[in-house]
Amino acid sequence: MGMGVGLDPPDERLVLLAKDGSLDAFNRLVERHQSAVYSLCFRILGQSQSAEDATQEAFLSAYRSLDRFEGGNFRSWLLRIAANESKDELRRRRRKDQAASLSAIFDRNDLPVEVPDPHEGALDIIERHEFGAELEQLLLEIPFEQRQAVLLVDVYDFQYEEVARLTGTSVGTIKSRIHRGRERLRNLVLQRPELSGAIRRLVRVREE
Asked: What is the mean pLDDT of the chain?
């Protein structure tokens, strides 16, 4: 099964070809969605190298799991994988940071102290809205789980139920995280009045 030159087949067609063993078809899916996947990973992790690593792992995981994709929106499915890979990358990064902190402690011949947990644990999304660098930095200043929920719902239009399934929590928990995350963002923006318009676009009123 091949693809005609110059054609731009939809995701559904490329997925079917990739499932039949076409590496070219999967590579076209990668080219089509890599910017969105990287954007999500970067907004979750806040570091370009970590985001690149998570993006690569997301596509590898998607390729290995392609037979389990049963249809629907391929982009959303891919973004959910990217969110999970970002979570795993964040955990790896924290372990490295903790190991480096402990190593520095022992190198100074000090007694070991408890390394505090930097807060939360995992994440998800894609590219559609462009934020300014300052607003994206503010997003990184709110707790991870709140940031994840706000991004997935307010930026990427995931439904509460989808985010709950993705994170293994309840709809009520997701709504609570979004509420707290929005409030934290609003408080941060009060200190940066030039971002007030951007935050209104991000934290829009949704039907409950």
From this structure: 75
Q: How far apart are CA 142 and CA 140, in angstroms?
A: 6
Distance between CA atoms of 166 and 78, rounded to whole angstroms? 12
One-character DSSP codes across 159-203: -HHHHHHHHT--HHHHHHHHHHHHHHHHHHHHT-GGGHHHHHHHS
Query: E strand or H helix at 148, and its extent?
Result: helix 144-150
Q: Largest Cα–Cα distance in the chain?
A: 67
User: Could you tell me the pLDDT band of residue 23, with boundaries at 50, 70 and 90?
Assistant: very high
State the pLDDT at residue 2.
53
Helix axis angle for 74-107 and 48-64, nearest 10°, is: 130
pLDDT computed for residue 103 by the predictor: 43
- How far apart are the C-alpha atoms of 101 and 132, rounded to whole Å? 32
- Out of 22-31, 113-122, 167-176, pick the least confident: 113-122
pLDDT reading at 107 higher than 80 = no
Specify whether the CB–CB gap between 79 and 61 falls below 8 A: no
Tens of pLDDT, residue by residue over 133-147, are 666 777 888 888 888
Measuring CA to CA, how many Å separate 51 from each of 119, 131, 138, 172, 178?
19, 17, 18, 29, 23
Give the number of other Cβ atoms within 10 Å of residue 104's Cβ. 10
Both structure tokens of 19: 């499932």
